[in-house]
C-alpha cells in the first residue's frame, strides 16, 4: 500500500551508497526523496554489516579487529583531523550526498568545528550523518534499560522504532546490571550514531555512590565504551565546584543526573570536578577512537524560573574553554544546552553558546517553554525546540509525553520523535535550508489536488494520517470543518481556482456567463 | 481526589461573582488560583442562568425579553460605546477581576479598540471575558454538526468538554439541516462567547449554491443569529473581486470556506463582494446587539508556499479599512489571520496586522509551521500559535489532530484545546504577563519537593499526568530516564540542594566531612 521505497545514491566509489526514502506520486508528479534514518534493517542476532569498515581500514590508522579495529599508537583518526588536513573522507562524501551539499562544505564545516560527524572507528555499522547549523536540524531519541523494567531485546526494538520514525542519533542511557551487554546489542544493530553518558555506568561500578567515584573508574569506563563503538559521550566537565552554590537558591536546583552526580562528588571531596582536571587525558582517549564530545550541561535549568541564570551560563562559558582544549587534541565537540526556557529567553541561549563555544554545534533538550503541562511535554518542548533550531541549534534531544512522570514506552518514543521531527523540519524551513520546502510543497500540492494517497505517503506518519482519514470519511470526499480541512471547502477552492485560471485566459465577463449557464455548481458536496 | 475547587471573587456589587479554579496545596504552600472557563455547569434542558441579565437591563437600552431583550430603536448598547463614554460596565469589572488588572485598563483597551469583550445582549448566560494583547492569550475551539454525523446533544457535550479544558470561546460551525436548533442549544448552555460564520447558514438557505446568495439572505441570517445571542461573527468582507486572481497561482488557492464562497459569488456575478458593499448596514445591525466582528481572512494561506503573499496581505489591508468603518458605528472588531506560515514569517503577520488594522486584536488559526505532518497539526500549529501569541496575537483558534483529515471527535477536541492552552500560556510567559509565571513556579516547586499530588493537581491535565505516573511507577519513587525526569536524579538534586543550603550556612569544609561521615548517601534510589 505504501509507495515509499528505499533507494541508494552512489558516490564516487561503489561502496558509498547513500539511502533515501523515495515516495512515488500519482498525477504525473515526480517522486520525492526524503532523508532516511531507518538503516538497512538487521537481524539482531547478527547485527548490521560494517559499512564503514573498508573506509576505516583504508586510512591505515587502525589495526583491523572484527569489523573495524584498534587505533594504532599515537594515531588520531578523527574526522576533524582529516578535515583539517584537507581530506574529504568517504564519510564526508556520504554526508554531502545525504544533505545535498558539496563535499567541500562538509569538510570545511567539520574543520572549523562548526559541525561534527560522530563516527567511532569501532562503530563501522553506522551510516554517516552530520550535526551542524548549516545542515538539516537533527533529532536525538533517548532509550535505555532501567534497573527493573526493560529487557535488552526491548531496547534494540526501541532503537529500530526510533530510527524508523526519524531519530538521527540515539542515546543509550541504560542503568542497572546489564549496561555493557545492552550497549553492545544496541551498537551492533544501529545505523545511527550512539551516544552515552559514561558516568552512569561508572556510578554503577562503585555501587551507586557518587562519593566513591574516581577519575580512574571513569577513565576505564570511557575506554570500555570507546572500544565498543560509542560515537559520542556526554561529559559533565563544566560543573565546577564554584558554580554549584549558584544553584542553591534555584526553584529546582540541579536537575541533570550527571550534574548532580558531579556536584555530589565535589561536595563530598571538596575537590574540583575530576572530569575538568583530567580533561586533556580524556581528550587523548576520545581522539584515538574518534569519539565526539557532547559537553554536558549539568546545571541546565529545570524550571522556567531558573532559565538563563548565572549557574547555567557560567557552566556554558567553561564548556567554551573545554571546546578549545578538545579541538587542540583533534577531538570533535558539540555542546549540550537548555531544559526549561520561556520563549523570549531562547535566542539568548544560542547566541551566547555560539559566541563562547566558538560556533561548536549546539545540542539542546527541548527547551520546554512552560512547566504547567506534565503529560504533554513533547508539545511544551517542541515549541521551544523548533525555535531554538531556527536560531541555529544543530540537534534537538527529544522529550516524550512521559517526561517528569515515568519511563517512555514504545508509543511515547514515537510521539517524542514525531514531535521533534516536526520541530526540526519547521526549523529547516525557517532557516531556508535548500530543498526543505520541497517536501511541504509536494504534500500541499497533493492535498490541493485531492491526491489522498500521495498526501498519506508523503506524511511524516503515513499510517496515522491514513487511519484518521478513514475513521471519519472512508469513502466520501466531503465533510464539514471550518478551517483548512480537506472537505467541502477545499473541493470548492480547487474548483474555483481552476475556474479562475480559465478566467485569466478568457476574460472574466464571458466566463462569468458561461459559468452561470453551466449551473454555477462549485459546491457539489454541499448541494 | 482532586484538590481543585471553584471559588468566586465578588466585585463591587453582589451579582459580580468571578469564577476561579483554586488548587489547594500541601507542604504549607498557599493555594493557587487559576483562570477558569468551565462555567457554572448546566442542565441542557434548562440552560444556564442569565448572569448578565440584570446588568443589561440596568443600562436601559434593551427592552426585556426572556433573559435579556430586544435593543431599543437606535440604541448601540456596545461595550465599545460604553467604554468610550467612560463607563466601566459590570462586564468590564468582571473581566478586570478575572485578569487581575485595574478596571480602568479594561475600559481603556476596549475604548481604544485594542481589545474586545464579545457579549451579545441576547447571550446573558456568558461570563465576560476579554480578547486583547494586554490580557491573557485566549483560545477558541471549533465545534458544530455536519450534515451527516453529529447530533445536537453531542455538540452541547463538545462545548462543555472544550470549556472544561480551557476553551475561552467556542465557534459553532454547524452545517446541514438543524443549524438554528443546534445553535440555540449551544448558546443557552454556554458560559463562553459563541462565534459563528453566518455565511454557512445563508448558504444552506439557498440550497448550497453560492451563486444564489444575496445580501438580503445574508442580512436576514445575521439578524436571526443576533437575536439568538451569537457573540461574534466571522464576515469575509475583505475578499474583494480584484484580490481573487491573486490566489490563482498559489499552491493551494483559496482554502477558507467563507473565502471560497465569496470568491465563487463574485466570479459568477462579476460584482463586488456584497459583504463589502453593504458593510455599513451590517455594522448597524451588529451594533444593536453588541455583536463583535471577526473580520475573516478568506485568502489566508493554506500552505507554507502561499504564506505572506500579496493575496493574503491585500485582504488584510482591506480589513484595516473595514475596522475603521466598524469603529465609526460603535462595533467591536477583531481580525482573523494566518493558516500555514513558516516560523520566520510569523512576526511580519502580527506587525502588519497591528499597523494596518490600527491595533485591533488579532485572532489567528495556528499558524501551522509545516505542511508535512497531517495527523499532528495540533503540534505543527501549536509551535506557530505560541510564537504568534508571543508577538501579540490576542486569541488563537485551535487546530486538532484531525485537521485536513476528518471531523474532530471528543479526544481530538481535548488534544486541540490542551495544545493551544500550552501555546497561549507559553506566550503569556514570553510576554511577561503579570502573574502568569506563578503557575509554573508553583508546579515546579511541587515537582522539586516531590509533592506529587500537588504537581498533578496543578497540571493542565491532572488526570493524564496522574495516569502516566501511575502507569510506570505506582508506588516506587525512582526510575531511570536521562533528562529532567522525576526519578533518581531529581531525588538527588533535591538532596544535594538541601546539603548545599546547609553548606552556605556552615562553611563547606566542615560540612564536607560531616557529609562523608554520615554515609554520603545522596543517591538512595540508585544505591
UniProtKB/TrEMBL annotation, chains A, B:
Pfam families in UniProt: ThiC-associated (PF13667), ThiC_Rad_SAM (PF01964)
Keyword check for Amino-acid biosynthesis: no
Functional pathway: Cofactor biosynthesis; thiamine diphosphate biosynthesis
Domain ThiC-associated span(s) in chain numbering: 3-62
Binding site for Zn(2+): 340, 404
Enzyme Commission no: 4.1.99.17
MF terms (GO), sorted A to Z: 4 iron, 4 sulfur cluster binding; phosphomethylpyrimidine synthase activity; zinc ion binding
Note on cofactor: Binds 1 [4Fe-4S] cluster per subunit. The cluster is coordinated with 3 cysteines and an exchangeable S-adenosyl-L-methionine.
Keywords: 4Fe-4S, Iron, Iron-sulfur, Lyase, Metal-binding, S-adenosyl-L-methionine, Thiamine biosynthesis, Zinc
Family annotation (Gene3D superfamilies): 6.10.250.620, Radical SAM ThiC family, central domain
Top enzyme class: lyase
Binding-site residues, substrate: 142, 171, 200, 236, 256-258, 297-300, 336, 363
Binding site residues for [4Fe-4S] cluster: 484, 487, 492
GO CC field: cytosol
Keyword Nucleus part of the UniProt annotation: no
Domain of life per record: Bacteria
Reaction equations catalysed: 5-amino-1-(5-phospho-beta-D-ribosyl)imidazole + S-adenosyl-L-methionine = 4-amino-2-methyl-5-(phosphooxymethyl)pyrimidine + CO + 5'-deoxyadenosine + formate + L-methionine + 3 H(+)
Annotated InterPro entries: ThiC, ThiC-associated_dom, ThiC/Bza_core_dom, ThiC/BzaA/B
One GO biological process term: thiamine biosynthetic process
Family, as annotated: Belongs to the ThiC family.
HAMAP family: ThiC (MF_00089)
Family matches, as NCBIfam families: PRK09284.1, PRK13352.1, thiC
Function in brief: Catalyzes the synthesis of the hydroxymethylpyrimidine phosphate (HMP-P) moiety of thiamine from aminoimidazole ribotide (AIR) in a radical S-adenosyl-L-methionine (SAM)-dependent reaction.
Protein's UniProt name: Phosphomethylpyrimidine synthase
Organism: Phytohabitans houttuyneae
